[in-house]
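Side project, low priority. Logging it here so it doesn't get lost.
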Amino acid sequence: MSYMSHCRRRHPTELDAQTTLLRGRSASQAGGAGGVTAPCPSSVGLEFLQLVHFRRVCAEGVTRDPGVIGTATGFLSRERTGPPRPRAGLTPAPARPIPIQRLSSECDVTSSFTPSCSYTATEIPATFRLRLIWDPASAAAASSVVAMELRLAGLRALVTGAGKGIGRSTVKALHAAGVQVVSVSRTQSDLDSLVLECPGVEPVCVDLADWEATERALGSVGPVDLLVNNAGVAILHPFLEITKEAIDTSFDVNLRAIIQVSQIVARSMIARGVPGSIVNVSSQASQRAIVNSSVYCSTKSAVDMLTKVMAVELGPHKIRVNAVNPTVVMTAMGRAHWSDPQKAKTILDRIPLGRFAEESNVVDAILFLLSDRSGMTTGATVPVDGGFLAT
């Protein structure tokens, strides 16, 4: 099993010495057949060390994933949880602190300290533990969610179109990250099942095509830090068969609702004097002509430009606005609509990666744009399309 696989199975702040010293090193590199170089058990304390998954140190104060951040005054603490068994022929060196250097470039943490005694791999006492303790004062610089630390916990989000597909998956991901989520859908049964899956989610049942009903339902929703405008419809007709109803419904849900919900949320952010992040779910159809999709393509093109204008106007209030532009996504609806191989081929042939997106691909992009990890990104339209828009 690899070092990182082993590491992920253990508590992140406690690693046994054998695993720690063996990481990324062969037996021959470590000192002969079966021999590894190990630090002498001791207890010397540690300051200003941040653990993420214990592998790399870097100079910029930004942790690579996985990694460690140390300062020039940092110390590595080796703490014995029990007395080691005597080993014939081995005389442990005196305990001493080992500094973690501020490095000029990223490197393996093993190179930043000198071992003080040797054991063979089989002789390292099972009771020996290497503890890494982190400094809370420096926690803001740490990188963490075992996937990627997005630091969303404690915030409040509103997600539209939350009953199914991308919206539902986004709610579940935010809920798992410790976000309080207001979930908006026009279908009560979808909200009921979502609440069962994610206890604590706040359901709001409203048809966003109804301006007055939306104002009543969301006007008093309370403080929101993050907004995902995901609700949308795709009414597909040949150009010569488009109806007024199709135009009205498409623009009401795909564009007007984004404007209205974003106004409600942004006004609250500005009144509270807090930063915020808004993500609009657009489409690759905003930038490419797709047969039988003239109204849909038009609404999504409008969403892209709306995103840019919102970013310009809301930026001074520290509110970022971005969009994601997925290709066909394999939601339940997507699978039903694109299950015909011949029909799917018309799009797949234009996607360099040769596949459609999964919901998780889009959700990951949304979470990134919501988080401070994209803190300098606003007004962007981010393709999640396997290269479709690059062709």
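Brief comment: Residues 1-84, 93-147 have pLDDT under 50 and may be disordered.
Revisit when time allows.
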